[in-house]
Amino acid sequence: MTIKLVTAGAFAAASLSATAAFADGHAACGEVSITQMDWASAAVVTSVATFLMTEGYGCDVTVVPTTTVPAITSVAETGEPDIITELWTSYTEVYEELVGEGKLVEMSKVLSDGGVEAWWIPAYLAEAHPELTTLEGIKANPELVGGRFHDCPSGWGCDITNFNNFKAAGLGDAGVERFQHGSGETLAAAIAAAYEAKEPWFGYYWAPTSVLGKYPMVQVETAAHDPDAHICNGLEDCATPTLSAYPTANVVTAVTNTFSDENPQIAEFLSNMSFTNAQMGEVLAWQENNNASNEEAAVYFLTTFKDTWSGWINDAAKENLSALLQ
After folding, report:
1. Strand duo 59-65 + 30-36: pairing
2. What distance in Å separates the CA atoms of residue 286 and residue 319, rounded to the nearest whole number?
3. Which of 120, 174, 232, 243 could make a disulfide contact with 223, Cβ separation 3.0–4.6 Å?
4. Predicted model pTM
């Protein structure tokens, strides 16, 4: 029996249990609208939240496909959707304004580790050559990383920032070539190929992703994050690039103030809902390996990390989901 069949069976069992519970008189929460952003981890968060709200709390959930800016704009103008999941607050200046105006209420750091952008080497390389976990070690031994820095494609936000950090670090003078991949797919493929052959690799990537879920990587120590330097490094005409680590991104779930006031039980659940990058990376790696849907990936999380999500929900929801908790 495949994992997909197992998880689908658990999904169905929990659904039947919840249906029976609501029929016995448990109050349903009513209609709820929730975003589904257009990247993998956000889609999993939405699918997990939708399942737990539907089957645990009796909500009638409408999933709204969107991206960050349209979702924030819609909340500002219409007060909908009710719930915004996996919102990377650094990519929208209006978020703090909406919170300050009382239009949005922050529920949780939905990625407890935050969104991570960094320079990495494979774990096997760090184990064999611990000195490569620092830039000074790489600059002193460029041949041990293959003499190459694998970078994101031209046009990505990380392109200019990495270029200026690369320049500030003096990596070119140390004999390291900056190699830009043509797409995110080829950047990911380079990590996979290096792992398969246990070859050197040094470059940029981010978490949580299926790639870092599959292939353990170790962050290279660069420099402390300097907000002013980071801003300059993001500009093409930065006159004096200064080495600065990427900041840890604040990634949250937020709801409208109206929804929070009218649905305290759901607000409590959402304030508890939080994934580590390791958990999300494992789920995304499983999803990719099994060519699974977002819903199947959600059920993989629900069946694999019961101890995590069972702490998010109240006793009534646990009763409704008792089949899945067995």
Report:
1. parallel
2. 28
3. 243
4. 0.85
